[in-house]
Design goal:
Length: about 170
């Protein structure tokens, strides 16, 4: 199904409903469009020196990655640095570690490649999405998105943007 992976209809005396499960092609398409829109808005802010709260997700430290790879090889599991840059091979490696109950290297890899993202005034890119710039713009989900939405509204209306000092105050609080 283009809308969802599975659906079922139920009819009860009091209610009728259709339950959709999973995300289909349509949901993935919307997701990709939203990521592209957020990247473009972030780039616009960056290119025009408009202060914004960027969502930052940094690259893992190469020396730490190398140490974990060496530890995994010592456990008898063949691994190459390229395995970490390919989602299928990375998932396969994680499966092997999980199936062999090798929790230490499993969690060390997770910690390296899935560090917490943070919001900052400096655009340092979003490595998990492979983007040079990314912001949240939906205020219903988080405060940084609301602030960025307000910033965009100021720009579109021709009003002065929120000043850097006010955004620095917000950055310290989130």
């Amino acid at each position: 199904s283009i809308a969802c992976k599975a659906a079922r209809a139920s009819v009860y005396p009091q209610a009728r409903f259709i339950e959709a499960r999973g995300e289909g092609a349509a949901a993935r398409m919307v997701e990709q469009a939203m990521i592209a829109a957020k990247e473009r808005i972030a780039r616009f802010f960056s290119e025009h020196d408009v202060p914004a709260l960027y969502k930052v997700h940094t690259e893992p430290v190469p020396a730490l990655v190398q140490t974990v790879l060496e530890d995994i090889v010592r456990l008898g599991i063949p691994v190459e640095p390229a395995d970490l840059n390919d989602s299928v091979r990375f998932a396969a490696l994680m499966s092997v570690l999980y199936e062999r109950n090798l929790s230490s290297p499993f969690y060390r890899l997770l910690d390296l490649f899935q560090p917490r993202s943070y919001y900052g005034l400096e655009n340092s890119g979003h490595s998990a999405l492979g983007l040079g710039a990314y912001i949240e713009i939906k205020g219903l989900r988080n405060y940084a998105g609301l602030v960025n939405q307000r910033q965009a509204a100021h720009i579109l209306s021709g009003e002065p943007a929120i000043d850097l000092e006010e955004l620095q105050s917000v950055e310290r609080q989130i």
